[in-house]
Amino acid sequence: MTSTVPNLCTAPVGPVLKLEAKLLERQADIETWFRRQWLETPAPFYASVDLRNAGFKLAPVDTNLFPAGFNNLNPDFDPLCIHALQSAIERICPTAAGILVVPENHTRNRFYLESLAALVDLIAKAGFHVRIGSTMPDLEQDQIIDDLESGRTLRLEPLRRSGDEVYVGEGEDRFSPCAVVLNNDLSGGRPAILEAIRQPVTPPAILGWSNRLKSDHFGLYQQVAAEFAELIGIDSWLVDPLFRNCGKINFMKREGEECLVSNVEMLLEDITAKYSVYGIEEEPFVIVKAEAGTYGMGVMTVKSTDDVLSLNRNARKKMASAKDGREVSGAIIQEGVYTFETWNDPADSAEPVIYMIDHYVVGGFYRVHDGRGRNENLNAPGARFQMLAFSESCTRPDPSRDPDAQPNKFYAYGVVARLALLAAAREIARAHQGD
Amino acid sequence: MTSTVPNLCTAPVGPVLKLEAKLLERQADIETWFRRQWLETPAPFYASVDLRNAGFKLAPVDTNLFPAGFNNLNPDFDPLCIHALQSAIERICPTAAGILVVPENHTRNRFYLESLAALVDLIAKAGFHVRIGSTMPDLEQDQIIDDLESGRTLRLEPLRRSGDEVYVGEGEDRFSPCAVVLNNDLSGGRPAILEAIRQPVTPPAILGWSNRLKSDHFGLYQQVAAEFAELIGIDSWLVDPLFRNCGKINFMKREGEECLVSNVEMLLEDITAKYSVYGIEEEPFVIVKAEAGTYGMGVMTVKSTDDVLSLNRNARKKMASAKDGREVSGAIIQEGVYTFETWNDPADSAEPVIYMIDHYVVGGFYRVHDGRGRNENLNAPGARFQMLAFSESCTRPDPSRDPDAQPNKFYAYGVVARLALLAAAREIARAHQGD
């Protein structure tokens, strides 16, 4: 591998090695269990999962059903993405070749555009005709973006609709796809043009942030983690962050503050109890974040109820704003999971981000933040990121080596990330039932 | 990538670049066509295909349904094999985890044992319990092989049967697999212990060399190549070696010699006609080989009918012997395809061998032979081989580069190898109908 191998160290604290050893030992049973789960509940088209590895605990803290960051994956593993895309798309379009990607509308974010270009490139290499249909309201004609650092070129075409079909291009150049791959998390709402079309939309628009709640996901994750913990005989807390939620919060008007304070208090007590069972001497903390949303806005680290009560006006304003200017109306209070993974010297905090396509783990990277501590959200704007492609995929454990050896740690990451993927699959199944 | 990148040169002779350019240009249509084909006719569990790249022509010359050589694949691509194995096995064993591999019986071939160990290792890493059930007649108890160069350990267990079920181990250790993966080409006949068992055997025993004929395979390949050639608008000869066959040949007794001579003559005429159409100035040649068999025995390069008539006693004896001592009873006379790929200076002949699991290309290597010319069979014993793992998979073409750039050449290899895979899939489907 030509890529830099990240110099990451995990504090070898008690139970985590036990957990990793357990996952390795039970690998065949775990994989059989997953196969059964995917038969019952097909995996989402793709997803990325943010993990936190606290040494004593390894848990997902965010599951993104419309992932960006494909440009940060190790290009040596493109063949894995290509296989997985073929497998995912051949289920939707067994005999057709046209895929339309509907991207985010923020065309000035170079990082996102690089990710979009990488995704489109992978779909083309998997053997599909692929074009980009944009829902940007002011896009009248094709927009060519040819100044990306990667040298890739993007053509954004206005998404059009005729009857129950979406397409791009006109006349001889008209392109009616077999399926629409959504790469827009719909924070700004579900676009009418995608409603009730004959082409399948994957992942379904109903899973966009305009409908989805983090607490729904983590409620389903709790069930998945409990079933999995029973399978391998562990305390599900070792892979599951505790959480509570408040339905109506208005930070600016200080509405719902009592709910928040009492839930923070109860959650801190629950974490303290767990820490005492496992002899963990760290200070418990919780993360308060918007129920709907992404891009790390409206995320706050809280160590006591005082932290909530003493929020100043600026902090309130920050909590109240989420992506696309939506007001935060619900909040999830999630157990904070320390990250004990660091990069560099002096140490910067690092957290693994795992990518999956269909039910396959296809790679990942470390998100490194040199301005944030090990108990803070690292998916934050305004500070330098360092993306480190994994030099190994997460599918090749080596039982002959130490459980904390890199391929084995990556296997553990792949297992926990797929538990979150399974929770997302159940979210989709439930949404379809309610549809 | 850490592996050596082979220093291979392909003579850039006329049509081949055109063919590679055509394959790249029509990639999405080709992949769509393949998807349709796999829906109609599921791919074999695995296969390896020997290709010959003559510069003006790229064609398969041998398709092995029970491949060895897994130890020669680039370990960087293990994740690809793991994905593909998961995809292949989850169709056979969606809810179970036990796989039994039935290997060849020649336990003194270290190369084969390394391949077997690599295959078993991959199946385990794909998340299955895997054990080896041997049909060696004199194996009374487990045989441990722990002196392999790779450091891997193999346990060969006697294959047992109870009612319609095969298993290994006894008592608490009894292991009843969900499926049997056959890695024995059955040159010595179909073992009775595998007949009419309830567990699926894949690839099916009926595709072993005790039943299979090379001319059946290449007959089906001819149809596949014709359909494919029509799809992309080329002369199917560019991917298809001409062939003829003789049903009854006994080299020692000189029976069937007339059939051989007349077919060699007609085939040489056909090749000469094609060479003249394409302005190729090489001397046409044909390969005569056993209808059933592998391991490169009984393979002869023939440039004129005199070559057949003047065979001396030793050469006859060699042609008459195939693996496991079976007498050659039929022969296929196949258009010889020059290999223009060379390695080293002075140049040794090289030919690509492509591996597939399910319908996925998972890698390959170059077979290099320093004692053989570019018009000879390179799968020959008695001389040094050099296996060169591909440093790139065959699934990642790059249309922005020259058609002969390595990833693009590998894509072309992957397409032609899959054409042979499809012919093998049709062989299996036909065998099942006749079963």
From TrEMBL, chains A, B:
UniProt KW keywords: Ligase
GO molecular function: glutamate-cysteine ligase activity
Any matching Pfam family: GshA
InterPro entries xrefs: GshA, GshA_N
Enzyme category, top tier: ligase
EC number: 6.3.2.2
Protease among keywords: no
Name of this protein: Glutamate--cysteine ligase
Natural source organism: Banduia mediterranea
